[in-house]
Amino acid sequence: MPGKGYWIYTFWLTSIIIVGIGGFFVGGAETPPKFLASTEEALSNMFGNSSEDFVEVLDVKDYPQEAKQENIRTIDAVEEGEVVLVDQPITRAKECNLDSDIDPKVGAIIINEVAWMGGLESQDLNYSDEWIELRNTSSGSVDISGWQIKDANGDIEIVFPDGTTIPPGGFFVLERSDDNSVPGIIADLIYSGTIANEDESLKFLNSNCELVDKVNADPSWPSGDSTNRRTMERSDDLGWHTFSEAVEEGVLGTPKAPNSKEVSEEDPEVKEENASEGDFSRCVDTNASPTKEILINEVAWAGRADNTSEEWIELYNPGGDKSLDGWQLLDGDQSIAIIFTEEDKMDDYYLLRRILASENPDGNWEIGGVSADKTYTGVIQNSDEKLQLFNKNCVLVDEVENVGTNWRNIGGSASPEYRTAERTDSNEWHTYSGAGSSGIMGTPRKQNSAPQEKTEQTNFSSGGGSGGQSSEPGEEACSQDDLNEPTRTVLINEVAWGGNASSTSDEWIELSTDIDRGLRLSGWQLLDKDKEIEIFLSGRIEDYLLLKRILVSESQDGVYMVGTIPADITFTGTINNSEETLRLFDASCNLVDEVVDVGVNWENIGGSASPDYRSAERVDVNSWGTYEGEDNVMGTPREKNSVVVESGEEDSGNEEESPPNDDGGESGDGGGGEEEPVPEEPEATIELDITSVIYDAEGADEGRERIVIQNNSTSTADISGFSVQYLKTGAEYTSISKKNFEMGHQIDGGGEFVVGANCTGVVPCEGVNMSWSQALGNDSGTVYLVSNQENIESADDPDIVDFLSY
Fold first, then answer.
1. Same domain, 602 and 702
2. Are 308 and 329 in contact (CB under 8 A)?
3. Residue 102: alpha-carbon gap to chain centroid
């Protein structure tokens, strides 16, 4: 006979069923899930469940009231309409009705800044690098667990997880897809979905579905600049304005910092040091020849050693006193816009000093003890920059252009000396040549230093070998600390460290590569131990690249030879005979190859000085030998090394020897080793193809876009120096997106390499070899596999290994 407990349980469960059935007719369609939830709770209370490894499965189709959290890091899987959460608190958010156009009940937490336009291409970002910032305007912490942000079309559905709080006066930054959208800022939350540029809205709701803030694009956003990538910021009156200051830390915005001031022509209290009070319009470059009545005379584009933000510009007036009222000094992207007023007058020199937007422009600002005449905000970019000076009628007075990849192309230097670029005459520039004063390596409000002969290496377009190369200086020299394992895509193949019998100054270096179709060397560097030699490379290497030392006193307009072979690049500086190191870096400062452990003399590894002056030749990636031939050069410039060990031989460090003949000499009678040559094994051909592109993966499949690369050869392919690049259909190549392969990335013969696109931070990448935050678009585009890590410039770029359009 059943016990007492049985009858109590039966009675209790029967009561619940009766109440549930009755409630169905009273409460409608929402009652069954509530009823089941009550039953679950009752059973849990009756039988208990203390397991900490509890896994809950929510059927999204049957439980519309539960939160759908594809965009929160706590997701473990999304399959067949089910959200599976493991070992994480489940945030229960209501399905809020967003149709009603009601005004928000603005409280302590507001939407403070929106980067709906994405990030700067100069920071390797693009339009997809969107972010949102919240701000707590109150004096107390606010718990926003279960709160939501949703957009107009449901592409963005953010639910804040349990325990999410914003401290008093604090900021909370949400980044799209990954933590790379805002340089230098760690995201508080990663979300998925796109903020549309038009006909869009963002609505911020609390845990009770009350609208606490919103902003609409109807049809356009009230502020922000998609062309220059300036963010939309909240004003003090809760309106919106466009970020008004110069780029800081690679962002035209203020993530996790107070917003910029709203600039209004009607507001007389707004005063910027780079703009006059009242109305003005910025001059436009008409490509006219400058009058040069006043010169941009000196530019400290790199700042100084103890403060790289302390940039300054000096103007020089070769005539009498001059009023600058209405004149303008603008940079390339007009992040610097200095508008002169009637108070600005100059006699001979006029000093402009950069300050940060947070600093007081009315302070006493100096440049090495010399008072500045005016301050400005904005950054002088280190590359692709120009400065233009216009008079009050917008006639071009002077300009600095053709800076190219670095200001060092025309003058000045960055680390470690931070020298200014000085005007030589109305057409030429040079680098400050003095010893410096008060920490300033320049001549503020003084006559410029005398130009010295250039010490940077120069190209002479020899036309031989891999063609005329340019050794135009690039970014500041790579650090030689904390180095990676060398990639060996290009080798330092031969070094004539002793010069030759005619001149010990005739040193030369040979680089080589076995990569099919060669490599582009733009931004690469070859440095010695003490950086007396700093060779900044550009152009291409097809097989060999020959670099020859010249003296500073030698003409830079000639063609220089190594024996009878024209050099591709010249350089200055001495290859030290002892305690020397040579290192080759790629454009990302990854170590490509090195020569170390020379010790007290290069002869420890290879080569010789007097009397033979033989070159040191590479035997293989790990060892060196000495040139074994007999000719005037005593080396093998742009030829196969004499000491290369053939397949199957030991790494002896010496040239292969022929079998001895009967009298102990070399084999063959007069024919040497040529009678029975050792056949060379043909180089393995690496064939890489993009075999498939999976795109338009949205909804539950978001984060599963893929690019599959196949190695069709039998040899392992090292792709650590390669990149994958994406171009949206119809877009210009200047807007291409790129992801570099990393050190150690390779594809086994016959194997595949899978790049996971648009999957970081949202749904974990599964079965991929490398993740990329780039979304591949919903309709069409082209994916390129490139043999280096430079942005391609056209579909005919010779470094394209393969491409696939979809």
1. no
2. no
3. 42
Rg (CA), the chain: 34
The H-or-E segment that residue 573 falls in is none
Of 261, 123, 111, 234, the closest CA to residue 184 belongs to: 123
Give me the pLDDT at residue 274, please: 41
Assigned domain for 80 exists: no
CA distance 485 to 487: 6
79-87 long-range contacts, CB within 8 A, separation 24+: 79/700, 81/700, 82/57, 82/58, 83/57, 83/58, 84/55, 84/57, 85/55, 85/56, 85/58, 86/55, 87/52, 87/53
pLDDT tens for 3-28 read: 555 555 566 556 655 545 554 444 44
Residues in the chain: 806
Contact 465, 563 (CB under 8 A): no
| Domain housing 29 | 1-50
Across 274-284, average pLDDT: 57
Query: Which region among 122-126, 173-177, 292-296, 724-728 has the lowest average model confidence (pLDDT)?
Result: 122-126
Sheet holding 396-400, edge to edge: 337-339, 328-331, 387-390, 396-400
> Last residue of a domain, which of 583, 617, 646?
646
Whether the predicted pLDDT of 268 surpasses 60: no
Q: Are residues 366 and 480 in the same domain?
A: no
Question: In this predicted model, what pLDDT tens digit does every residue of 137-165 receive, in sequence order?
Answer: 988 899 999 999 999 888 999 999 999 99
Looking at residue 371, its pLDDT comes to: 94
Q: pLDDT per residue over 392-432, tens digit each?
A: 999 999 999 878 777 888 899 887 788 999 998 888 899 99
CATH number for 511: 2.60.40.1260
H-helix or E-strand spanning residue 226: none
Are residue 606 and residue 486 in the same domain, yes or no?
A: yes
Please, are residues 431 and 411 in contact by the beta-carbon 8 Å criterion?
yes
Dihedral of alpha carbons 749, 752, 755, 756, sign? negative
User: Does 664 map to a domain?
Assistant: no
Does residue 379 lie within any of the structural domains? yes
CATH number at residue 357: 2.60.40
Same domain for 497 and 619, yes or no, is yes
Q: Which residue has the higher pLDDT, 680 or 360?
A: 360
The domain total for the chain is: 5
- Same domain (yes/no): 529, 426: no
DSSP, res 23: H
pLDDT at residue 387, rounded to an integer? 93
What gap in Å lies between CA 508 and CA 772, rounded to an integer? 41
pLDDT digit string, tens, across residues 538-557: 778 889 999 999 887 776 66
Strands 157-159 and 337-339: unpaired
Contacts 24+ apart (CB under 8 A), 105-108: 105/210, 105/211, 105/212, 106/212, 106/213, 106/238, 107/206, 107/212, 108/136, 108/137, 108/138, 108/140, 108/142
513 and 372, same structural domain? no
Which of 402, 411, 545 has its CA nearest to residue 473? 411
- 472 and 425 in one domain? no
Query: Which among 242, 259, 275 is the end of a domain?
Result: 242
109 pLDDT band, cuts 50/70/90, is: very high
Same domain, 508 and 468: yes
Residue 256 lies in a domain: no
